[in-house]
Amino acid sequence: MSETKPAPQTITDGKTVHGVVAEFSDVDSLLAACERVRDAGYTKADAFTPFPVHGIDKALGIKPTVLPWIALAAGGLGTCTALAMQIWMNGIDYQYIISGKPYISLPAFIPVSFELTILFASFGTFFGMWALNGLPKFSNPMFTSPRFDRATDDTFFLYLDAKDQRFDEDGAKALLGDLGGEYIEPVVDDDSSKKIPTGLLVGLAVVIALSLIPALAVARMRVTKSSSPRFHIFPDMDFSPAKDAQQISTLFADGRAMRPNVPGTVSRGDLDWDVDFHTGIDMEKLAQIDAPRARQLVAMMQSDVEVDQADGQVAGEEAEEATEAVEETTETEEPKAEDAKSEEPAAEEAEMKEEAAEEESSQETETASEEDASQEEPAEVEPATEEATVEGSGEESEEMAAEEETTEEPAAEESEPAPAESEEPETKKPEAPAALAPASGPTVDTTPWLTENPLAIDQAVLERGQQQFNIYCSVCHGMNGRGNGLVNQRAQRILATTWTPPSNLHDETLYQDAYPDGKLFSTISNGIRKMPGYASQIRAKDRWAIVSYVRALQASQNASLEDVPAAQRKAIEKEQSDVKAALEKAAAEAEAKAQQSAT
């Protein structure tokens, strides 16, 4: 027969008995008593010690807690919540590719899933512990015993709860006495008032009311409009101008919203390559066409060299040493420019003697014409031209200016006003030979771009280029390079008026013969139109790898069987024959069905 739970016993003063407690003076006697109580069949017993006692849980027969399972379940719920939230947000409700990853990318979802797993598990552990221990409990009958205060000092206590089915007050006292309990007493109700103090209730109500104010303010802000700015306790960067890469900014002189790299800085590990590798330009040929630009590009590769942006000249002795190799290619042009400069003062002095009686306006016209003539090479200036420049009137000077435009002189130099006689003559840049001078017109690109990729193209380089392309380029240009990326699709869906569609990489104007590899590398590095430069995000070696993958992507659209290695042609020919046979079979079946339906 199963034993029934006895009714709580009372003592003479009418207080309810909640159990019996006994004191022990040492750990060994407490452990022995716990084992005897366990063997006697008591399941609701507890021990109180001033310090942790190893093995006391086993001695009391306490079963392992279910709290770890609660923490596991809560953590699993957090993981499922995070995954469901991210799948819905990024894969269903607002589809957007980030860094080339698919809509539903489990590796990318790990950080948020991990955080919510820990958060839910910690909450489950905290509140599960409260529930298992019956908390919050504002009073405990054990606190009615004044001797129980020594449980935190030097005394050990063993408590038998009256809720145990085997509990009997007299039998419990006798058992604890036999086990060596030095002082045994019943645990009765706390006779203090059970009414919660009014002040505590009022204070709790005030705290709850005050805590609702921020929530109500936030709810009101979400449904109302106001022309006043928000109240910021900590402004931080809330009021700093935020610009997108697609916008125009007035913060920088070039109008870009994304600030370019600081000149002279080089990423770690990138100094192993030369200037050609980092710019995509043949610097030797550029030095012959545009020496100042070549010197500037070389100087930018030096971390301790200053570059004068006004005239493209390099300042400092270290810069001259760094560009010595580039200047050697322009030694043939420098003497000619110096001769032109040395002849300029002598020509001016002769003119001043001959034309001293003429008016001031004629002198200014002659000076302007003479400076235009001095910019040309001595070997190309004819005597008749010099005389027309010195003695001609203002109309003849305008005719000469028109003729100089047809001889590939830049229009910007002719539109500059001529300086007065009192001003010192400006220092002119050395002019390139006529054979190497850039052609006029805004659409002509005379930059000597590298025509071949400096990397050794192999499977590893192409795979690296594909990876970087999918991360940085496919968002706009699409995985196939046809300009149908998700950003462009969304811009078309929302009818963005300021959006410039990305280029189709399979356009013939972007093939290698029309768009050299070096120019494509420079476009990736520095950007074009609304495309920002990626030099600060992608290493130079990876940018060249992207160039190689783009070329492979272009070749894949127009490849022929001759482009396939000989060892793989047979497999492709077999696959072609199988596809052709399948198509012929399908066509025959369709024709047979059509004939049957016709009959």
From TrEMBL:
Residues 333-344 have a biased composition (Basic and acidic residues). Residues 312-449 are annotated as: Disordered. The keyword DNA-binding does not apply. InterPro entries: ActD, Cyt_c-like_dom, Cyt_c-like_dom_sf. Gene3D superfamilies: Cytochrome c-like domain. Residues 432-443 have a biased composition (Low complexity). GO terms for molecular function: electron transfer activity; heme binding; metal ion binding. Residues 317-332, 345-424 have a biased composition (Acidic residues). This is Putative membrane protein.
